[in-house]
Amino acid sequence: MVISSRFAFCALSVCSPLLLAGVAGAQSGFGGSQVITTAAVQASSVYATDLDGDGDADVLSASHDDNKVAWYENLGGGAFGAQQVITTAANGAFSVYAADLDGDGDADVLSASVDDSEIAWYENLGGGAFGAGQVITAAADGACSVYATDLDGDGDADVLSASFWDDTIAWYENLGGGAFGAGQVITAAADGAVSVYATDLDGDGDADVLSASQWDDKIAWYENLGGGAFGGQQVITAVADTALSVYATDLDGDGDADVLSASRHDDTIAWYENLGGGAFGAGQVISANADGACSVYATDLDGDGDADVLLASYLDDTIAWYENLGGGAFGAGQVITTAADAPYFVYAADLDGDGDADVLSASFYDDKIAWYENQISPGGPSLFCNPANAHSGGGFATLAASGFSGPGLYHLAANNGPVYQFGYFLVSAGSVDPGVSVSDGRLCLTAPFGRYSPVAGASLNSIGAFDVGGVFQSLSGNSSVGSGFDVPLSLPNPPGGMISTGATWNFQLWYRDGVASNFSDGVSVTF
């Protein structure tokens, strides 16, 4: 087996995920892992779109060690069919994508395979059948990433590639009828090119190109000059340490496409504001604790109309999301799973037909393609007073949303607190941001607020303490999982009464912080 350098730096690190502690967290509004397959050996890429013309999103995978591109039929209701192999001849299959390439109205499949340096496509013949691989190029030396969109303004989907060994971003003109032109080099100065994407970055109506390159720590863009010509490399940043993934969408609500990156050595996901006219702001860190950040994507996950951020970090086996709080601010990471063994790629699409974006992952060491149902109630839960005041350990205690959205079926969790300090949860019908200073923290709940304390007793008791990892563990409180708190149907008095369907309640954690006390951020939940 030949292992590419990109795998050496992202999937086959000397720091094996099996030897590292997982990142603890709540379900964060998503259901548990639902396995689509464990037969994608060294799964490296996942994508979803309608492949069989029945109106729902089917799933595609690329897997490196078995040279395989495969698809899985969406059977409805969250169920998927068995693996259907499109090819086992993509030597070191590394990236998969789908778009209508031959103009017949269905989605054809594209692959990039790192060990044979090929970009190939597979015609959708209808009814779930695909044709043999048609090689677009065998000269993309160490092909790592493939994407397709109209680059020359003629209405069909052209193809883009990023190739690692020749540091190249190239495009291939769609000539119609399934034929493609020779590779046209956009740049050969993306040192260790690993990721490519395209969208309109300068507001002139055509698709510009983005690249991530790991050896020069660079995120860069290339202006589409029209007629198939591209401008020189314009560096957005050169400090994304081992940049592995790039994506773009409007993150701050001003109508233009901002840029996202994931970089492995500094464990960072960051975004870069589009300032207009092709200029970008400095990197704004969303998280610097994504251990081995490999893949980044963004879409609206919580139904509030803005783009939230998804991340796969392979060293801590984690898929997590970061709520877009508006104005360019993002909430703390909310863990979807820590059971994806070396997740290498993350994507989102509506998989169960309920109108929200579910999450997909491809994980390397367990050969797994899995999905996670979006169970977030529309418009919530959402964080407020985030970040909270720093505690004595230097961090910011934060609440994590749960996947249980019904009255009496909701679980709260708290993370990043000071070690061995105790606390309990509070509840109120109202909230205020930035809140009122109390001791070392900010109380962001309005009166009357209730205490889920030992005095309240029984199922209303949430007493717990932060463990050595900063996770709030139940002591004698009401928790079905040993950490956090299962919010019961009854409310403490005050405010008294019961939680009813459609009602919105707000929660914070009060906790002891040395000789003082402090508060977490708050979470607002519509039940």
Proportion of residues in helical segments: under 10%
Structural class: mainly beta
| Total beta-strand segments | 48
Spatial separation of the terminal alpha carbons: 51 Å
Q: Which overall shape is indicated by the principal axes computed on the Cα atoms?
A: elongated
Question: How would you state the average pLDDT, rounded?
Answer: 89
| Number of helical segments with 4 or more residues | 1
Q: What percent of residues are in strands?
A: over 45%
Which blocks of ≥5 consecutive residues have pLDDT under 50?
Answer: 1-27
Radius of gyration: 24 Å
Biggest β-sheet strands, sense, barrel: 7 strands, antiparallel
Description:
Helix content is 1%, strand content 49%. It has 527 residues and is an all-beta fold. Strand 15 and strand 16 (179-180) form a beta hairpin.
